[in-house]
Description:
It contains 23 helices and no strands.
Amino acid sequence: MPRARYGLVVLLSTAALISAAVVAYARLADRPPRSLSELVGEASDTFAVHDAADIRPHADAYRRFAVEDSIWRARNDRMLLRWQTSLGAVWHISPRQLVQDSAFYLVRDQRLADAADLLGRWLVAHPQDDELRVEHARLLAQIGRVDDALGEYALAVGRRAGDRELRDEYAAALLQARRYAEAADQYRRLLAADRASISARLGLARALSWGEQPRAAEPVLRDLVRALPGDTTVLAMLHSVRAAIDPTAEEAAAWVSEEPRFAPYRLAYARALVEARRPAAAVAQFDTLLMAGESVALLREAAGVHAAIPDSVGSARLLGRAVALAPGDSALRRDYAKALSWSGDTRGAIEQLTLLLREHPNADDLLMRGRLYLWSGDQNRAEPDLIASARMSPRVETYTLL
């Protein structure tokens, strides 16, 4: 009998415990616990920390945890447990914000490729997010994936056609990628919306000039110079573009009227006049240039134009000044001797040829000097030169003169 009573007591106790557990589970499922003590009851904690540094993580650990946690959340996109949120234990931010924050931390740590990959995966699931698409494009450009970056820009610009800042950024990216024709097209679109935009006009000028379209860039830069008087950068761009143009005489004359003291414009004008078969007018321009400063190249070119008038004396005079600047130039001295001979100064021509023959005797110079001696009536000096020339290089002309 006592044993039966004991068994009954055990059975009743077990049933009571199971019933309590069922009730507790039902309450927990219906309402989350408000505190730890509600779960475990009152208790005492004898554990004591005397130095906070013993349990406090390193400062960098918080940052690393935030990065990896954000990446995990962005990849898995799982909501926090409802009871955790209701307790206020964790602030649950949106998945998009998690992606942005993760990308920010990755960029700060110079993990640009990881940041670009993270944004790329987000955009696969959210293709309409143009704001993050632009960020993705910038990251792709930074890591050298230029074509992919431009593709992202194009998608964003296509959906936000009225966003001028975005289009300007896209045009600048195209310009940086040396896709000049496409950049010019984007800058033209910007100018269609705002004709007064200085940045768009400057961008168009760069796209055209760098894309080897100097004639198309010239009027854009000319208008910019008028709009920005005193801007040396724009003026230098205009000079550079015009240097790549072969102007007509009328175009070059207009350039000279804009900047009369800019020598390259006047030289272009002089050459254009020669091309137009107006050498007399070109001579005046060359003479003006030479008054500002002489160089061997300029003197030779001017001498050639004087010869076309024809002005043999003027041509010889200019070549003589060139020889004074470069006395060691044998070819220049030989041209000078020919010009002197043509102008009738036989003695001067012979002197120049004599200087050349002292340095380097050759058949051509000996033949020329022998001919000049012969023409001047000095057969005694002509004969040795002609014989020496024939020995070096036998030719019919030499034997005929002999």
